[in-house]
């Protein structure tokens, strides 16, 4: 529903009339400018807006309508978003909104967002129909030579970088043919930070203490090999991004991701991005494993690997770490014990590595593990542990360094510094 507050004597625009004007002006502008302009220059945008304004007033005269100025301006803004931007999505992206971390569109037409520093979803109203959502998705996918079709019902892509949103985002889309609903695709957009993550932000958000931050700073600067673990949206990438501020400035750092989302504000950072292609494509995929393997030939001082999701990537990373290349990466696990078990299992399942050999790779390639969890509306470090270099009954062990007192309120967390004497195995 198109809402506005009419003034005295003004006329309303019902949904059908507004839709008719939109379609007519869109068709005319697209014919005149040949195609919808993406990321136009200020001069091009001014030219399009002037023409759109003329066309809108012409259509209003045809319908003998005289709505309030705010109604006309809202109509022109909507048209400009569709012609020169990302339609309905522009209202959810910087510079209009800078408070969101994720956007979700359901196949039923429900729209939800997650605000930064929050862990719950919020439903928002929208006027975007399924056709507009599909058109906007096509604008995002087209320049990347991708399309969401029944033949390719799942697509992963990048949200394009703009001046207001330089880091872009990660897009996952599912075709209506595999997500029953009302004709909408299922879309999730993870927005990356618009600027480098500063360590003090994590302290302000009560994610850890200054003592813990100093401990991790020393670990990074001394070349420790660190695994950052947690569940989905627990803040793994944010923490890794913040810790990258502690890399010695002279170090040559190679970053391997799928997709690239860690923003390090330094010139001596080389990023390698995985490229996953749909089945049947003649273009070969380029995985995290490929990126780690080639990084070894780039003489890095430090490796940063985005989330490890399969055994091949885990094995490549641990081999690189065991050969003397320090680095950090993220991994989906609910606890240190779960991390050891899942990483070993992935290497066994995907690479045929025996349990003992997989466990040996873990203890040889990792020095430290940082565990994150969602608590209320907070994302907090629940433990920092050292990886013991000896196996017990063929299993990795760890030594607690910091532990969150989980009976404390998320808004007033308290951590305990451990004696670093107790050795814990997954069986414990």
In short:
The chain is of the alpha/beta class and 428 residues long. The protein has eleven helices and 15 strands. The N and C termini lie far apart (58 Å).
Q: Which fold does the CATH topology of the largest domain refer to?
A: Rossmann fold
Could you state the CATH homologous superfamily of the largest domain?
P-loop containing nucleotide triphosphate hydrolases
* Number of beta-strand segments: 15
Largest sheet: 9 strands, mixed
User: Which range best describes the helical content: under 10%, 10-25%, 25-40%, 40-55%, 55-70% or over 70%?
Assistant: 25-40%
Question: What features would you describe in this structure?
Answer:
The chain has helices at 15-33, 42-62, 69-84, 130-141, 199-204, 210-221, 236-243, 288-295, 311-322, 336-351, 355-365, and strands at 100-105, 111-115, 122-124, 154-159, 169-174, 186-191, 226-230, 253-257, 269-273, 302-308, 327-332, 368-375, 378-387, 398-404, 415-417. It is α/β, with parallel strands linked by helices and 428 residues long. The protein has three domains: 15-85; 91-191, Beta-Lactamase, CATH 3.30.450; 199-417, P-loop containing nucleotide triphosphate hydrolases (Rossmann fold, 3-Layer(aba) Sandwich). Helix 9 links the parallel strand 10 and strand 11. The radius of gyration is 25 Å and the shape is elongated. The N and C termini lie far apart (58 Å). Mean pLDDT is 87; it is low at 1-9.
């Amino acid at each position: 529903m198109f809402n506005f507050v009419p003034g005295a004597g003004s006329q309303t625009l019902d949904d059908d009339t507004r839709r008719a004007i939109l379609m007519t002006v869109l068709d005319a502008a697209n014919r005149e400018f040949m195609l919808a302009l993406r990321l136009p220059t200020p001069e091009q945008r001014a030219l399009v807006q002037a023409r759109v304004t003329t066309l809108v007033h012409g259509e209003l005269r045809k319908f003998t309508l005289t709505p309030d100025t705010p109604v006309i301006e809202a109509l022109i803004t909507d048209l400009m978003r569709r012609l020169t931007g990302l339609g309905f999505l522009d209202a959810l992206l910087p510079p209009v909104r800078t408070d969101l971390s994720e956007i979700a569109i359901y196949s039923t037409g429900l729209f939800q967002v997650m605000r930064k520093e929050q862990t719950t979803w919020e439903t928002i109203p929208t006027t975007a129909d399924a056709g507009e959502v599909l058109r906007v998705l096509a604008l995002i996918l087209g320049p990347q030579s991708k399309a969401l079709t029944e033949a390719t019902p799942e697509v992963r892509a990048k949200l394009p970088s703009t001046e207001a949103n330089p880091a872009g985002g990660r897009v996952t889309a599912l075709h209506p043919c595999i997500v029953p609903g009302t004709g909408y695709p299922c879309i999730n957009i993870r927005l990356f930070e618009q600027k480098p993550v500063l360590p003090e932000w994590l302290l302000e958000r009560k994610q850890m203490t200054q003592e813990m931050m100093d401990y991790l700073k020393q670990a990074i600067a001394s070349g420790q090999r660190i695994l950052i673990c947690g569940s989905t949206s627990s803040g793994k990438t944010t923490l890794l991004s913040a810790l990258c501020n502690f890399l010695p400035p002279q170090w040559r750092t190679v970053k391997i991701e799928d997709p690239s989302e860690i923003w390090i504000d330094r010139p001596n950072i080389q990023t390698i991005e995985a490229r996953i292609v749909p089945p049947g494509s003649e273009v070969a995929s380029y995985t995290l494993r490929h990126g780690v393997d080639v990084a070894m030939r780039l003489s890095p001082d430090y490796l940063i690997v985005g989330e490890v999701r399969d055994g091949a990537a885990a094995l490549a990373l641990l081999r690189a770490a065991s050969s003397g290349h320090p680095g950090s990466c993220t991994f989906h696990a609910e606890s240190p014990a779960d991390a050891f078990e899942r990483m070993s299992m992935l290497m066994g399942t995907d690479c045929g590595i025996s349990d003992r050999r997989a466990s040996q790779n873990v203890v040889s390639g990792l020095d430290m593990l940082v565990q994150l969890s969602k608590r209320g509306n907070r994302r907090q470090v629940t433990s920092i542990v050292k990886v013991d270099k000896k196996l017990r009954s063929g299993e990795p062990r760890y030594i607690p360094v910091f532990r969150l007192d989980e009976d404390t309120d998320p808004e007033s967390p308290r951590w305990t510094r451990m004696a670093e004497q107790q050795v814990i195995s997954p069986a414990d």
